[in-house]
């Protein structure tokens, strides 16, 4: 993200806040969904470019799914064992999956307006 030289810090803050609201849509998503989107975004940012491209092609919706896909890619290139499962919905028994709220769009995890894309 490039900050225009004529933009004040206050203007930059408001622009960033607007981008955040367009990307995250906090009125439509739970805290857990928002956290997962941020974790997924950061996970994708730290992956090497070739791994990132392959993982994004598979459209993970959660950070853990992206991590498992990255491991699958790395193992395939090294000749290691393939990933044991291609479904990434497992949650430990002690952590129930949060209920979805009614009349809310599915959170894709792929922001179209996130800074630094």
From TrEMBL:
Residues 8-69 form the SCAN box domain. Residues 76-117 are annotated as: Disordered. InterPro entries: SCAN_dom, SCAN_sf. The gene is LOC104958535. Pfam families: SCAN. It comes from Notothenia coriiceps (black rockcod). This is Zinc finger and SCAN domain-containing protein 25-like.
